[in-house]
Amino acid sequence: MSDTDIHQQLCDLLDRAGAAYRVVEHEPEGRTEFIAKIRGNKPEQAIKSIVVQVRFGKKDSKYYLANVPGHCRIDLDALKKLFNAESAAFAAREKAEALTGCVIGAIPPFSFSDQLSVLADPLIHQNQEVVFNAGRLDRSIFMKSEDFFRIANPKTADIALK
Length: 162
Prior knowledge:
By secondary structure, the protein is α+β, with helices and mostly antiparallel strands. It has one domain: YbaK/aminoacyl-tRNA synthetase-associated domain (YbaK protein). Helices cover about 30% and strands about 30% of the residues. The strands form 3 sheets. It has a 5-stranded mixed beta sheet with strand order 5-2-3-6-9. A 3-stranded antiparallel beta sheet has the order 1-8-7. A hairpin with a 5-residue loop joins strand 2 and strand 3.
C-alpha cells in the first residue's frame, strides 16, 4: 500500500462522514516542530500520531495508534498503566509503517487496519481546529477537532507528556 492510497482513503473517509476539512500541499516534512512552521500552525494544534506496542506477556501484545498534541510526547508509563500491561514501547519502524501504510512522519491519526486501535489524549480537544500529516509527507489536513473525535472514534486517555 502506498502513501497515496492512505491519503485517498483518508479523504474518502472524511467525505463520507461529512467532515469539513482542507488539504494543504507543502514541502515534504514529517517532524512536528518543522512542519508547524511550514504550515503556519501552532505546535499544540497538530496531532502527533505514533504507533506503540503494548505487551501483556512474552507472546501477547497489541498495537495502538497513539495521538497527542504536537507539543507533547507519548507517556509510555501511562499506556502501561492504562492497559495494566508489562510494558509499552514505540513500535519498530517497519511494523509501524506496515500497520499504517505510511512512512514515519506521514501517519495520520486515523487507522485503516483492524490490528491498530486508535487512542487520543483529551488535550487534543483544546483546539477547535487540528492539523496532521495526511498519509503523505507533502500533504496535511486541517479539520475541526470535534470531527476528528467523531470520525476516528478513539479511546480517550491521558497519554500525553508536556
